[in-house]
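Protein modeling request. Please complete all fields; requests missing the sequence field cannot be processed.
Requester role: graduate student
Desired output: 3D structure, token encoding
Chains: 1
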Amino acid sequence: MTSPRRRRPRVFIVDDHALFRAGVRAELGTDVDVIGEAADVVPAIDGIAACEPDVVLLDVHLPGGGGHAVVTALKATHPQVRFLALSASDAPEDVIAVIRAGARGYVTKTISGAELVDAVYRVADGEAVFSPRLAGFVLDAFAALPAADQEQPSFDAELDQLTPREREVLRLIARGFTYKEIARELFISVKTVESHVSSVLHKLQLSTRHQLTRWATERRLS
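Delivered output (222 residues):
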């Protein structure tokens, strides 16, 4: 699978879904040493600080806040720890937030096991790794970004009031996904999808999924 460039990287997994963490462990197999895992921001920060892994596989959406909060909290005190975002989201705001915080790469959960192992080794070696369709976007996005100490400009007041997870759900609705398909794509329950849709409808003052799809399509969210 992966050539023995050096010792196996020590990996810490951060994701709020236990089943997904178990799946990642299985995919990584014996090619790396998984030394810990966490499901939320604070336990992740504490666990990473204690274990000092080589690479942290990090979801960008966690119950206690974004994955970027984990990176921000540890980057100054543990600069040797490298972060690789592993998320179902390909939303620009998610990618930008975690990379600006200090992550070394961003791959989506459609990645294969072999590709993930290779990405872990590359990040451990100091490389920056992105899913192919995100690489060009990242370069373009950062070229147009304001300085790191400035806030990103707000272009759409209605869209800005939605949480990152609500935007993910909205984007998949615009692509024609059913609630079941959205739940499978984001590793959440159908009930949670319905809750997000209800919240979005309320915030945007819309009443039907058809109106919501049209609203998202008009903004080219798909």
